[in-house]
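Good morning,

Attaching, inline, the backbone tokens for the sequence recovery test we're adding to the shared suite. The designed sequence is right after.
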């Protein structure tokens, strides 16, 4: 997947209703790192996730690094968003976490079984090929 140079930050958040408007809270650390400024206007893109991230317990982070959003043995429905240099499918899940899926085609929706989870990437096998409208 090609990431445009204009992308300033990427994070997961819930959309909350506030009267007749809807609100997405920007994490404080996005402001603190200097990528964003309070009071400025930004273009926002929303991507649906397969499931909402579960709240993490206080002990689930170490040294500020978040745990991977997938677990070995877990089955996920994903869309193949890109093809890597080795020809493997690439899917993104919560927080932009990468899942590598061999034998998958660009744009294909598949159910995958996660086999190997690392800090910044997981490897999975296609368990089922899904119709695009599912």
């Amino acid at each position: 997947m090609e990431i445009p140079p204009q992308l300033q930050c990427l994070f997961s958040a819930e959309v909350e209703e506030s009267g007749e408007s809807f609100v997405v809270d920007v994490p404080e650390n996005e402001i603190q790192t200097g990528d964003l400024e309070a009071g400025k206007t930004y273009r926002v893109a929303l991507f649906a996730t397969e499931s909402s991230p579960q709240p993490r317990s206080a002990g689930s982070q170490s040294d500020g690094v978040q745990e991977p959003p997938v677990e070995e043995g877990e089955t996920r429905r994903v869309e193949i968003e890109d093809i890597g240099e080795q020809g493997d499918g690439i899917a993104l899940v919560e927080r932009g976490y990468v899942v590598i899926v061999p034998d998958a085609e660009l744009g294909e929706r598949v159910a995958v079984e996660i086999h190997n989870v690392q800090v910044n990437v997981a490897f999975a096998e296609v368990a089922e090929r899904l119709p695009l409208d599912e």
